[in-house]
């Protein structure tokens, strides 16, 4: 076994700490290659009628909704189209959209889709993960391009490499 002096150990530890806290390394370790997936076309949306889809993979149920009022992170001409994971952040039960809110079927946590999926009632302590959307005005298409927050039951939102769609 090789002996390491205290000075060498402290110097090496300091260098490793500096390396691990560098913004470039943190970004490389935490950024995820989200797929770009077409979710809907604005011409087919109606206020208050949810559109179910899966994102970022087939095991991640999500809901897109046209709220009829401007929302944080909303897209479209009125900034009122948002999407969220439909798994409650408390225990992963399904949430459904009703009366301008998402409601957990198991323990009745409630989330406000106009305010980033903020929890305002129930056991859930974290907001619903919001799906990052991009609206293409020329076609009316709406694409999912990422997730803000961690989907329930995961340590990473993207489980495996997925194919992205072309524009």
Main sheet overview: 4 strands, antiparallel
Strand-residue proportion: 25-35%
Stretches where pLDDT falls below 50 for ≥5 residues? none
Number of extended strands: 10
Order of helices and strands: HHEEEEEEEEEE
According to CATH, what is the class of the largest domain? Mainly Beta
Give the number of domains. Answer: 2
Mean pLDDT, to the nearest integer, reads 88
The CATH topology of the largest domain turns out to be Rieske Iron-sulfur Protein
Structural class designation: alpha+beta
For the termini, the CA-CA separation is 57 Å
Classified in CATH, the superfamily of the largest domain is Rieske [2Fe-2S] iron-sulphur domain
Shape: elongated
Helix content: 10-25%
| Widest beta sheet: strand line-up | 5-6-7-8
What is the CATH architecture descriptor of the largest domain? Answer: 3-layer Sandwich
Counted by DSSP, the helix tally is: 2
Report Rg.
Answer: 20 Å
Keywords: 2Fe-2S, Disulfide bond, Iron, Iron-sulfur, Metal-binding
GO molecular function, one term: metal ion binding
Pfam families: Rieske (PF00355)
Protein name: Arsenite oxidase small subunit
